[in-house]
């Protein structure tokens, strides 16, 4: 009997010691230092990254159509002859060729006078015909004379217009070969290049896997590597339905709005084509999401300064961020640093 009592006492003592040791171990568990971030609803975008060379929407090189003495016209904006970088309006004269002999041969003044005479004669014959004073044949002959005079005058105008190099659209002078005033240039000489780049285009080749994601009208953010602080807006305007068998890509054209002319033709740019977006969502940094046997998860600050594991269902994502559809909500305190060694219900100490 005494042996039984002794055994019971020893067992009770061992249990008490074990319990005290366990309590001591729990009390001395070190809290892991972590940094946290309070979640707020914010916009999120998913996009396709690409690069390419920006091109002017309109570009033309103008050449002479006849021989003549070269002369650069005065830019009314500056009061000086046109030069590289000057803006021009549609129809504005930039270069003029001078050749008095050619002008005299055109005889534009006499042809204008002949047109006036023939028009008056036709009107007179028409009035007389209505009163029965002339025959229909006489009226038709007068009409033919008027038409021939009109064509003759218009041809003279076209011949005279060949002496003037005018802008076919509003743009900027990008090339202007130098010739001394009065230099004789021959027909076919390139004398000025114009570009209109308030609107530009970017032709890119996108991977085959993205063909179902890209749509006409999708907005795009364009950034120049040279002028990185300026972001311009663009839109998808053309999509080729064909996949290249060599590169496994398809061609897409973006139209860029460049009202301040900050982007220049030939610049290498980065484009982010937005394929999905939300104005308000729970968004977290992509690099803190961990993967386990049961899927994606992160840690938040739980009760009694412990780490609480949250399983996630993800949505829209990009290179930096990801939308959380399930598992987190606004105002949760997300652990963003020091999470790597945590387990569910690990003790933590918030340091930031």
In brief:
The protein is α+β, with helices and mostly antiparallel strands and 352 residues long.
Index terms:
43% strand, 352 residues, disordered N terminus, 4 domains, conserved putative lor/sdh protein from methanococcus maripaludis s2 fold, 4 helices, Elongation Factor Tu (Ef-tu), domain 3, single chain, 22 strands
If helices are DSSP runs of H or I spanning 4 or more residues, what is the number of helices?
4
In the CATH scheme, the class of the largest domain would be Mainly Beta
Mean pLDDT: 90
Give the proportion of residues in helices: 10-25%
- Lateral arrangement of strands in the main beta sheet: 2-11-14-13-12-15
Regions with pLDDT < 50 over 5+ consecutive residues? 1-27
Largest sheet: 6 strands, antiparallel, barrel
Order of helices and strands: HEEEEEEEHHHEEEEEEEEEEEEEEE
Topology-level CATH name of the largest domain: Elongation Factor Tu (Ef-tu), domain 3
The CATH superfamily name of the largest domain is Efflux pump adaptor protein, beta barrel domain
**Total number of beta strands:** 22
Distance between the termini: 63 Å
Query: How much strand content do the residues show?
Result: 35-45%
Globally, the shape reads elongated
CATH architecture of the largest domain: Beta Barrel
The gyration radius over C-alpha positions equals 41 Å
Derived structural class: alpha+beta
Total individual domains:
4
């Amino acid at each position: 009997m005494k042996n039984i009592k002794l055994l019971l006492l020893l067992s009770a003592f061992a249990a008490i010691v074990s319990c005290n040791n366990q309590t001591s171990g729990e009390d001395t568990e070190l809290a892991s230092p972590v940094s946290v971030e309070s979640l707020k609803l914010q916009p999120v975008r998913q996009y396709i990254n690409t690069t390419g060379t920006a091109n002017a929407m309109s570009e033309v090189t103008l050449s002479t159509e006849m021989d003549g003495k070269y002369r650069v016209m005065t830019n009314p904006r500056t009061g000086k002859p046109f030069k590289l970088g000057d803006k021009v309006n549609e129809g504005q004269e930039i270069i003029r060729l001078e050749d008095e002999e050619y002008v005299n041969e055109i005889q534009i003044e006499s042809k204008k006078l002949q047109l006036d005479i023939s028009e008056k004669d036709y009107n007179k014959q028409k009035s007389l015909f209505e009163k029965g004073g002339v025959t229909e044949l006489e009226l038709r002959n007068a009409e033919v004379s008027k038409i021939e005079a009109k064509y003759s005058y218009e041809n003279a105008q076209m011949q005279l217009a060949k002496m003037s190099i005018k802008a076919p659209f509003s743009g900027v002078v990008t090339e202007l070969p130098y010739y001394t005033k009065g230099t004789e240039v021959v027909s076919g000489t390139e004398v000025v290049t114009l570009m209109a780049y308030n609107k530009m285009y970017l032709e890119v080749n996108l991977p085959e896997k993205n063909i179902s994601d890209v749509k006409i009208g999708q907005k795009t953010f364009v950034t120049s590597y040279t002028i990185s602080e300026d972001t311009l807006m663009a839109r998808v305007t053309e999509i080729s339905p064909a996949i290249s068998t060599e590169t496994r890509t398809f061609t897409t054209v973006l139209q860029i709005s460049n009202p301040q002319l900050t982007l220049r033709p030939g610049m290498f740019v980065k484009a982010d084509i937005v394929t999905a977006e939300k104005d308000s969502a729970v968004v977290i940094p992509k690099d803190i999401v961990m993967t386990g046997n049961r899927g994606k998860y992160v840690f938040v600050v739980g009760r009694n300064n412990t780490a609480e594991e949250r399983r996630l269902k993800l949505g829209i994502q990009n290179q930096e961020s990801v939308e959380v559809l399930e598992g987190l909500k606004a105002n949760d305190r997300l652990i963003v640093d020091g999470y790597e060694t945590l387990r569910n219900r690990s003790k933590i100490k918030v340091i930031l």
